[in-house]
Amino acid sequence: MDNSSVAFVPTHGPISQSIKNESRLCDSCPLVFYTSVLTRRRDDYLKDSKYFMAVALLAAKRSEDPNTQVGACIVNQENKIVGIGHNQMPNGCDGKLTWARDRTKDNKHLYVCHAELNAIMNTNGADVKGCSMYVTLFPCNECAKLIIQGGIKEVIYLSDMYEDRDEFKASKSMLELVGACIVNQENKIVGIGHNQMLNGYDDEEAEDNKHLYGEI
Ligand SMILES: [Zn+2]
């Protein structure tokens, strides 16, 4: 028997009938040897894009926000993870600030650091230029600024549940203007382009609400 192409699997493990059909018994071993199993690639392995989004989803699980949990995962051009983040209060503020959402009162929006910001800050010095960001919720306008200024070229998102809000419309406008590639889990929406955002932004359009787009 050629051991280089042989896998052995305990007989008590879950084994599909198709694998059993391809197997043959080894006379000298209590385990069953399954030939050809190791020579063929698994078809149901976790693909890169699903894996990186799964990492973002796992990061979201760390959020203490009782209403919205978001995770982000930054991946470089070698498909290596360089930063992970979730929405959380600034360092040292955990448990000391409100998670209330009512913007007319003391509320979380004044304090919370979004997942995208934290992922960018958690890179341990790695450059995010040219990277892709997997994020469970489409980035707001503030995070879009960080993404663009950091040189991240691609945003892959899972949910766009706030697409009707001005902050998210502005975010999409900025990302599209700079040619960042906005991708959902199924379809590419915009092609990859250069990353020149605030500098090249059209002032006339920005008159609508400058606070959404750039520094005032
Ligand atoms: Zn944000």
Task: Walk me through the structure.
It is an enzyme of class 3 (hydrolase). It comes from Labrus bergylta (ballan wrasse). This is Deoxycytidylate deaminase. It catalyses: dCMP + H2O + H(+) = dUMP + NH4(+); 5-hydroxymethyl-dCMP + H2O + H(+) = 5-hydroxymethyl-dUMP + NH4(+). One of its GO terms (molecular function) is dCMP deaminase activity. The protein has a domain at about 50-185: Cytidine Deaminase, domain 2. Mean pLDDT is about 75; it is low at about 1-15 and about 185-215. Helix content is about 25%, strand content about 15%. The protein is an alpha/beta fold and about 220 residues long. The chain is globular, with a radius of gyration of 23 Å. Strand 6, helix 5 (about 165-175) and strand 7 (about 180-185) form a beta-alpha-beta unit. The protein contains seven helices and seven strands; from the N terminus they run E-H-E-H-E-E-H-E-H-E-H-E-H-H. The strands form two sheets. Strands 4-3-5-6-7 form a five-stranded mixed sheet, sandwiched between helices. The structure holds zinc ion. Zinc ion (ZN) binds near residues 116, 140 and 143.
Lay out the secondary structure.
Elements: E1 6-9, H1 17-21, E2 32-35, H2 48-60, E3 71-75, E4 81-86, H3 115-121, E5 132-137, H4 141-150, E6 154-159, H5 166-177, E7 181-184, H6 203-206, H7 210-213
Parallel strand pairs: 5-6, 6-7
Antiparallel strand pairs: 1-2, 3-4, 3-5
Helix pairs in contact: 4-5
